[in-house]
Amino acid sequence: MVKVRFVTDKGEKVEAEGEVGISLLEVAQAAGMPLEGTCEGQMACSTCHVILDRDWFRKLPEASEEEEDMLDLAAGVQPTSRLSCQIDLTDALEGLEVHIPPESRDMQGV
Ligand code: FES
Q: Which end of the chain has fewer CB atoms surrounding its CB within 10 Å, N or C?
């Protein structure tokens, strides 16, 4: 199991863990984080947007072009934003800290 920590938009820290190979989105949802993940990892919604610490961001494999395009549509995007459905847990992510953005609503319905 890989341990990760979520930090909500209110600064609340939530410890969670998940098996190697599942997506960060699944771990977040299991931990009760308000990420909709409407498209279930198809990179078509951006409701799984999370913000990573800079050090962690650098350690992750780079986002694909599709992911970057989708992130452009997400609310409150930061330089260290990622789509959590595109991040699979590995042992190297033990201790990862993930910030949940304040606006994690689906922007497509607007
Ligand atoms: Fe839709 Fe990640 S779940 S882009």
A: C
DSSP run (H or E) holding 49 = strand 49-52
- Separation of alpha carbons 31 and 75, rounded Å: 22
Quick one: tokens of 14?
A: 């939530």
Instruction: Note the maximum CA span of the chain.
Output: 38
101 in ligand 1 pocket by Cβ < 6 Å?
Answer: no
**Predicted confidence (pLDDT) per residue in 66-96, tens digit:** 999 999 999 889 999 999 999 999 999 999 9
Residue with tokens 């078509």: 44
85 lines ligand 1 (CB under 6 A): yes
Domains and CATH numbers, the chain: 2-109 (3.10.20.30)
Q: What is the DSSP letter of 64?
A: P
Q: Angle 69-32-13 (CA atoms, 0-180°, nearest 5)?
A: 90
78 lines ligand 1 (CB under 6 A): no
